[in-house]
Amino acid sequence: MMEKKKILEEGLLELYLTGELSEELTTAVEEALEQDKSLKEHFDALEADFERMGMEQAITPPDAVKIRLKNTIGKTPTTRNWVPLSIAAGFALIFGLSTFWLYVQWQNAESNLNTLQLQTSRLQQQVDELESEFRLTSNRLENINNPNVIPLVLYGNQKAPNGKAVAYINHKSQLVFVNPKGLPQLPDDKTYQMWSDVNGEMINMGLVPTDKELVSLKYIENAESLNLTIEPASGSEHPNVEQLVSFVTL
């Protein structure tokens, strides 16, 4: 038996209604209609739509035409008069069915076009995001590979065994980046935070999340050391020295 999906996708029901199918396809569609209840219901609804369209497109003839037709019928045998009328009705039905089938195909094409446009838009958005991320990464790599950059390694203490972060400082351009990938993961309610020691005062440089390759921090002039602590997820105004993980002098 021919699959329901094939019949619907190829518009075979519409062609069956208009009598445009080959004998083989006509037999296959009729067998499918007999065995598939849902397909038969779809066909009945389609046939009803065709009939409704035919009625909506019907044109009421003028009275003079009606009178002339009655006179002609009265003069000519009935069996002959109905032949051209039947042919005309058949052509009208075929025209209506063909119009409806073309309308259905146009609707499907428009839907497919909208889907394709949406997919294209999403793909373009992904490409733009990748390009933006690539430019950002390239700029950061250029910054840390600059000859004026000083790399500093912060090794973890007992609070972060085997932990390590690398800070890149460029005093000339006043930029600071940190690679935190060597630090242990923290609970969701905790984060790392970097501080600069300036004349005994700890100044906040920013949070150091571990889910990024490079983190940009605030440059602090006259800093004597960098200090990494564990703080609440939202950060702290003052460092918790008891949660000091690592430090390095400049």
TrEMBL record:
Keywords: Coiled coil, Membrane, Transmembrane, Transmembrane helix. InterPro entries: Anti-sigma-K/W_factor, RskA_C. GO terms for biological process: regulation of translation. Residues 106-140 form a coiled coil. It comes from the Bacteria. One of its GO terms (cellular component) is plasma membrane. GO terms for molecular function: sigma factor antagonist activity. The chain crosses the membrane at residues 82-104. Pfam families: RskA_C. Residues 88-240 form the Anti-sigma K factor RskA C-terminal domain. This is Anti-sigma factor. It comes from Flagellimonas oceani. The lineage of its organism: Bacteria, Pseudomonadati, Bacteroidota, Flavobacteriia, Flavobacteriales.
